From TrEMBL:
Gene3D superfamilies: alpha/beta hydrolase. Its EC number is 3.3.2.10. It is an enzyme of class 3 (hydrolase). The lineage of its organism: Bacteria, Bacillati, Cyanobacteriota, Cyanophyceae, Pseudanabaenales. InterPro entries: AB_hydrolase_1, AB_hydrolase_fold, Epox_hydrolase-like. One of its GO terms (molecular function) is epoxide hydrolase activity. This is Soluble epoxide hydrolase.
Amino acid sequence: MTAELWHHDRIDTNGIELHYVTEGKGALMLFLHGFPEFWYSWRHQIPEFAKDYKVVAVDLRGYNDSDKPQAQSAYVMSEFVEDIRGVIDGLGYESCILVGHDWGGAIAWSFAYAYPELVSRLIVIYGTEEYVQDLRIRYIPNCSHWVQQEKPQLVNQMMREFLDGIDC
């Protein structure tokens, strides 16, 4: 791991501040964690993909070092979707490769439906399975957070094969 290269920062989005960790340069690759995790669940993927992309792993609202609004209404899907839109815009990008796991996968699907023009590719690891015909989308089933943590090289390989195999 290259934890010494990770940069921690915060970004204003949708009326709150989100904490994130970033490494690398290039096109934006945005990672959304599952429940009950936080950005650190992507520690094996950050250095792998920072070789080719600006990797950003956020703490979603209500998690870890991000703001935790008190109102229950602050935790509806539309709020998470707008958070992600604000992150992409706030970082100065027009689109991203969006990667979500578990709860982050559900947010990623919802975001891609709401803002397809902001997603160049979508990778969902063990989230809500959707019918996939779009070649820009890769769904990796049966990959719980245990597989993501215990066999990160397998997850990295599946993601790398998808990213290297399609020219969008």
